[in-house]
Description:
This protein is an all-alpha fold. It is 70% helix and 0% strand. The chain is extended and about 75 Å long.
Amino acid sequence: MLLAKPQPWHDPAWPGRVTSTVIFLLLLLPAGYITEFNPAVFFDATSLRASKQFLATFFPPAHSLEFLQLLVQSAWKTVAIATVGMVLALGMALPCSLVANRALSLSRLGRHRMGLLPAIVRAGIRWILSILRSIPELVWALLFVRAV
Length: 148
């Protein structure tokens, strides 16, 4: 049985990828200049000293009783805040989802049309939910951290 000679691997999209990378880098250079980005600052003696001091605080790890108590209290506080946030979100999301849902409306069960005011309320809630869903969680986190 004769085996065919293996064909060399060829990526048909490589010209587009190389072009995209070059364009990205060409756009990145002026952005770095405008923002006064200077990578040499990372290797400055002052920056290296500050980095060394920061990393030195990790060793030896803190394991005193006071620190562990603070750690447990802070972890419990975080869990409590997350739980309250989830309960509040659920309390707002359930009624909104029931109002925004077409399949569960009373007008779908009967033969009559939905009134103008309920239709406007449903459309408004659907718009609000769509807008809220389009905002990433990280943006919400930054907003709430900034507010507190």
